[in-house]
Amino acid sequence: MQTDHFGIFRNQDSDQLLKQAEVPEVAWRSPSNIALVKYWGKKAVQLPSNPSLSITLDKAFTVTRLKAFPSDGRPGISLINGASDHPFLPRLQKLYAWLATEIPFLKEINVEVTTENSFPHSTGIASSASGISAFTLCILSLATRPSSQQELPPSFFRAASFASRMGSGSACRSVYGGFTVWGMTADVAGSSDDEAVQLKNMVHPDFERLQDAILVVSSEPKSLGSSLGHSLMEKHPFAAGRFQQARQHLHLLLQALQSGDFGQLAVIAEAEALSLHALLMTSHESGLLLRPGTLEIISRIRQARRQGLAVFFSLDAGPTVHLLYPEKSLAQIEQFIRQDLLLYCENGKVIFDHCGKGPIQIKALPFNP
Ligand code: DP6
Question: Is the pTM for the entire model greater than 0.90?
Answer without folding.
Answer: yes
